Amino acid sequence: MIAGEILALVLAVGIVVFVLAPLFRHDAAEAERIGAAVSEIRDLASKREMLLSALRDLEDDHASGKIDEADHREMHDRLSNEAVAIMKQLDALDQAERSATPVGMPPAAKR
After folding, report:
1. What is the DSSP letter of 20?
2. pTM (whole model) above 0.90
3. Which of 12, 14, 103, 111 is at 20 to 30 A from 75, Cα to Cα?
């Protein structure tokens, strides 16, 4: 019975070490930074695509007469401004990634 408890304890310690080991790697902070950057880029790219789709839908609605000129202009300006802001953020992240990537190494995140 004692041998079973010792085996269970050793197994539990082994599992804890296995699960926590990545947190103590010397490059864990860098991996976390890269993961966060990739996530942010994907979120921004998704928002950009939604805004561009909304702009296309808006143009279709305007062309079919569902939206009058004043509403079209106001929504078009708002959506365009949001899309431009997101594209600027993506460009800034891309520039930061390029400056942080050593020469000869591929960028960490692909879009």
Report:
1. H
2. no
3. 111
